[in-house]
Amino acid sequence: MELIKIIGVGLITSIAILVVKQIKPEIAVVISITGSLVMLLMLVEMLASVTQVFDILVNKTGLDKELFTSILKIIGIGYITEFASNICIDSGNTTISDKILLAGKIVILIMALPIITALVDIIVSIMP
Questions:
Q1: Quick one: 126 and 84 in the same domain?
Q2: pLDDT tens, 84-103?
Q3: What are the Cα distances from residue 2, in Å, to 37, 40, 49, 127?
Q4: Number of domains in the chain
Q5: What is the C-alpha to C-alpha distance for residues 78 and 48, in angstroms, rounded to an integer?
């Protein structure tokens, strides 16, 4: 049901952009960002269930909760980076979009280092 609401907001936003772009193109970008943010906020509630599943996994596996928290943060950074990049592309700023994507990839790499280190430690402890 939530997906239908999100699709509805997306379609209304798209139609509003098409109408306004002919009259005031600079306002079309604002409508695009606003509609996108509304859809993103609608997804926040759905994402809460994902964190609950990760909590269950942490309890079942007994692994460090910080690893799972890092994974969630990495996923969030990826989505937010893509979201911001797409807004830049929609407004005609592809070079800024590229820089945002590069920054997101670097931040993801930095945040993944503890996970990679933990995996190497586990592999080393298993080896004879």
A1: yes
A2: 999 889 888 899 999 999 99
A3: 15, 12, 14, 48
A4: 2
A5: 17
